[in-house]
Amino acid sequence: MNKKEYRIANVLIIAIMIFFAILAISLSSNLSLKDLIAQTFNGLLGKSSPDDTAIASRCSNKPALNISSPDLYLRKLQQYQNTCQSFVTDRLMIFTLFPQDSASAATLADNVAGTLLAFQQSGVNPLIIAEPYIHDGPMSYRRYMNGEYDQYVREFFENLQQKGITSDSIGTWVPFPESNTPSWDNKDTEPKDFSTVVNKYLRTLRAIFPTAKGSILLNATTYEPADLEYADGNYLSLVSYVQDIDKRLVSSVGIQGFPWVSRANQNRREIFRASEFLQPDYAIEAARELRTRDIWFNTGSFAAKYTNAPEQLASINANDRKAILEGILQEAQKIRQLQQNEYRVSINLFAEDKSGSTEATDWSYLNDPSTQKILKEFLSAANQADIPVWIYDKDKSAAR
Questions:
Q1: Whole-model pTM?
Q2: How far, in Å, CA of 283 to CA of 301, rounded?
Q3: If you average pLDDT over residues 273-295, what whole number do you get?
């Protein structure tokens, strides 16, 4: 081999090494191979690529979903995609109530079916929270266990089927959420009754949609059934709530936990550590009891609480919100790393601005550039860590 051929061979070897180095970095980064190569060589030449700003603002490498629906959840998802200039999520949380008669079964089914069909068209998987409310207020667990609403719940699912909903589009159903909190009309029940009502509801669902998925959502802080005040909670095992659940009906375990701060007119107290407000160990214990590998957190970070009382209004700064989200992601990663990835973990980000509701808390991220940046950093980090993020939010301006 002469000197010229030797130099050519060396150049080719170096080029191949550089290519595979860039490929390795691309696979572990949030950039496509094309973007990374362009960014690398532009950097070597001291130039800035016209796509640099767009690349930096993306939350993932996946293309955004094609959304053209007027559905208020999907319209909001499009706003998230516009902010991220990329795919954000293909799973959204929605809420529904319980029917108390045949008329409400038909009305509820009409509303839910419209959303589910719109989700299916856009490639979005629904996570449906069935709260124990009826039109007259909180529904009695005891009356539900005694069969008073059985006919109407079945009619509700039958109506969904008649409107074109199938097992493929029905989504994952989560009945009786947060049943270990003071929120519901279950003061005359015991923790084990949670299993009773969940089994009853999901069996009715499966009777109409045989392959439908079920899940549960319990609070990280547990209260005695007779408790009326949220100040009385404790961090307790959830096994008594889940041990009698039919394991064939439930494919995942959800744990709800949120940061908290005291009112502005009280001594400042905070619960900002995700390890405390999420209690991951109890989530793992419940998952083991139900023999599932899938755990999801319903959580978020707020900008302000007690927004309905100016003297009580408590706000937190952007750095605190960022640290809270980072802590949530760290806890999810810790669970997933247990025993060689025994568990699959997802995060449902509760992100609605509820300042004007009785909850009086602003969980939103899209209303301010600084919180948009925090959100994009969180979504990008979750994407790189392979932790799916779901979202609950809706476009109020599009409310029907």
A1: 0.85
A2: 20
A3: 97
